[in-house]
Amino acid sequence: MKILGIDDNQDLLDLCELALASDGHEYLGVTTGKEGVQILKDEQYDLVLLDLSMPDFSGVDVVDALVEAGMMTKQKVVIFTASSATEKEYGPLLEKGAHSIVKKPLDVDDLLETVQKIASED
Amino acid sequence: MAYLGSILFFSVFVAGTFFIHSAFGAVSEGCGLWDVNPECDLSGWMKLFMGDIGVGAVLAVLLHFLAHRTTQKLEQNGLELKKNGESIQQIIKSQESIRKARRDYAVQNVKNHMTTLLFVVGIINRMTMNYNTEAEQKSVIYTKIKGEEERMARIIQNVRNTITYSSDTLDPTLVNQLDGLCTFVGQSSIIEKDGKLEFSKYEKSRRKIDEIAKKLSSFTELTPVFK
Lengths: 122, 227
What we know:
The complex is a heterodimer of chains A (122) and B (227).
Chain A: E1 2-6, H1 10-22, E2 26-30, H2 33-42, E3 47-51, H3 59-68, E4 76-82, H4 87-95, E5 100-104, H5 108-121
Parallel strand pairs in A: 1-2, 1-3, 3-4, 4-5
Helix pairs in contact in A: 2-3
Chain B: H1 2-24, H2 44-133, H3 138-165, H4 172-186, E1 191-193, E2 196-198, H5 202-217
Antiparallel strand pairs in B: 1-2
């Protein structure tokens, strides 16, 4: 799968790359939401791993930008959020077309399992 | 008893000054008791009224002035105290909001570090498994493992820095747990045994990180407590 990771935590992006690349996926990580939206406009990705809590341009802003550009269904968007987040907070994102919500913290096995599950849906 | 003595002394003094005029102040011949003219001495009663009452009036004015000034000063002091109280309240409020902001930042920061730490121990564990199963490129994998160990050490140091910086805002039990976790995970080095690598503390490290992460997750702005 061609996967785009959007997260302000560079370490996490590097680790995701290590894990996903070793599992045979093509992965690119970016640290800002704006950059992520731009890349999605230019290229086709199968899956977006999007962190909800980011400074300046949050995960919600990324979803809104994709909805506005009519690109929300172009790829599957999985939202990564803090485990204290409530349905009230992430519910609207699912309504806007996000594929699923994954609560942090998750380990490598959880991530690979999630990606595998999404890949098997196609 | 002391009061009684004072009252008695004061009464005798006042009575003495009051009646001394009438006792020794004789009325001049051909002059009335209340006459005021150059040919007549003032009678005892007139001396009493014109002297004592005059002095009393001056004293009354003076005392009134002093009392008024004291009241004004007290009022001013009261206002200043009120102002100072308000300023202190504002300082306390701003200090409290700074403390809350520091605590929220620390929690958010440690949460992020826990997620990364959980990931990095997982990656190291996977790499050790790869190292043990792969026949080739063992040195490449080993170098990568060392690289990830360095990353882990850096994350642990960041957690330590965060808890040192904000230890006064966090629950002491949580600070101790985090410190213990940092020590435990920091010591979770890879051991080489019979040509194979072993990350023996992986499961325990993972569980400990997960527990702390859950504890941190129970902290929200609405319920700022660690369950």
